Amino acid sequence: MDYQAQLDRWLTQAGDDPDLILELNEIKNDPPAVSDRFYRDLAFGTGGLRGVIGAGTNRMNIYTVRRATQGLADYLNASDLPKSAVIAFDSRIKGQLFARETARVLAANGVTVHLYPRLEPTPALSWAVRYFGCGAGVCVTASHNPAKYNGYKVYGADGCQITPEAADKVLAAIEKTDCFDGVKLTDYDQAVAEGKIKLIDDKCLDDFVDAVLALRPGNDVSKLNLVYTPLNGSGLECVLKLLNKMGVPDVTVVPAQKDPDGNFPTCPYPNPEVQEAMEEGLRLCDKVHPDLLIGTDPDCDRMGAAVPDGKGGYRLITGNEMGVLLLDYLCRTRAAKGTMPEAPVAVTTIVSTDMATPIAEHYGVELRRTLTGFKYIGEQIGLLEAEGHKERYIFGFEESYGYLSGAHVRDKDAVNAVMLACECAAWYAGQGMTLLDAVNALYKKFGFYRNGLISIAFEGQNGMKAMEGLMASLRTNPPKKVAGRSVSQMVDYLNHSTGLIPSDVLELRLNGDAKLIVRPSGTEPKLKLYLSVKGGTEEEALQALDQLNAAANALVRERSVD
Q: Domains in the chain and their CATH numbers?
């Protein structure tokens, strides 16, 4: 491919964003930098687009956003879906710009746009798609990635992120589109004046918060002391509205992370799963001594928490731990209040903790497992709704800090999760227990399950090929042992009859209640390895997890060399 020719074309035609011209002039004599920007088109899939902000076909910029939106518009116009869409954005750099450019392209293609006028959570986008009866939705966000990233999540009419089939159709339309000459564009202000772009009023957002509030199990939170951080993202407005309506009396917001800031100055990796991101909140906890610290990621679809550790400090709760805590709490509370539906259903993913299985069985709840991605949990809600029994769905979670207890949206919802965590913490406080006490009680009752995650980046132009080669090696020549445990079965979700759609995932089931799942990320050149063990004691489980972690890393190194 003639990268220089592409560079010259962009220098000539990318004048709508002076930042891009400046960047291209700075790197035009640096061949590796040029090729990195132009060696491929930014990948589009079920997660939409995600990439580094900058110039070129392999970057997030107004031209790659416009091109993707033209493909989405062509897909909508060729379908029988409503010719309308919702757009939202979070605090990411150029987030509002990308949202407006998305609106301009859709409006130019005859698609009516409902645009949030200020940053709002991703679940509020999912809510608004169904609230307005739209054919699609777009949220401009890179979720919890570092500041140099932005992204473009696409949603279907059901409020879920788009299916693989829909993504393939949108991609086919994108591939026919030239980012400069093939995109229809209208003037933003004129489209607003003509009603082609409609700014969403506060009633839609208030109705979203009220829909979350309607899902309350109903336990008192009037004595709860809470520290909250939106991690410089979009959660502050909705979360504070919710907490006020719930009657949480004592809420301290982390000052340095309160205001929207796409540079994320205090948390380079704004992910509530990560200790570093929560450090500002943890330091504030040492002064305020709350019952609970809660953090939501920049687009407010993931929630992390920390609780008193009984030693004067605070301990982060893992995504799996919070998932089983909330599952148990909801089941216990609804059973006690007589609000458990007939034939209740909970949903989690194949990479989430096996501990959910005995808890669900204990309460007589059917547990369904899906592929990774909350859209598949949302799909299960849709199936229950189509059967006329959406009330059967009581809870869904994934290990990556995503939770949902209702059918109001079809994606993980950190606003909903904040409500559940506050009620759960307050209920246990009434029993004289912290959430850590509660976690430990569940371990003693159901078994000492432990989970781990290894994330390995395959950078550069050859990264995707290296990752594909490693997966091929594992498929054709699976290991006979891992961490000294025999591989009793390998499940290949790409070819195996699992009842799920084919997916590039390998599951190595090991003797002794352990397993290793290997999955390439769907949005970036990154390999994820999910570790699962169970021990007779906490010490035994932790030792087994350490051994599996070392063995999994060694396996990747060995196969990468091959």
A: 3-200 (3.40.120.10), 209-313 (3.40.120.10), 320-446 (3.40.120.10), 448-561 (3.30.310.50)
CA distances from 105 to 28, 84, 108, 256 (A): 30, 12, 5, 36
How far apart are the C-alpha atoms of 119 and 106, rounded to whole Å?
A: 19
**Sequence-ordered list of residues with C-beta below 8 angstroms from that of 330, at least 6 positions apart, any chain:** 217, 394, 395, 405, 420
Copy the structure tokens of residue 348: 């989690």
The per-residue pLDDT for range 159-169, each reduced to its tens digit, is 999 998 999 99
Q: How far apart are CA 176 and CA 166, in angstroms?
A: 16
Sheet of strand 485-492, all strands in order from the earlier edge strand to the far edge: 448-457, 526-535, 514-520, 506-510, 485-492, 481-482
SS3 call for 469: helix
pLDDT digits (tens, 9 = 90+) for 432-470: 999 999 999 999 999 999 999 999 988 766 777 888 899
* Residues that are catalytic: 143
Residues 465-502: tens digit of each pLDDT? 888 899 999 999 999 999 999 999 999 999 877 889 89
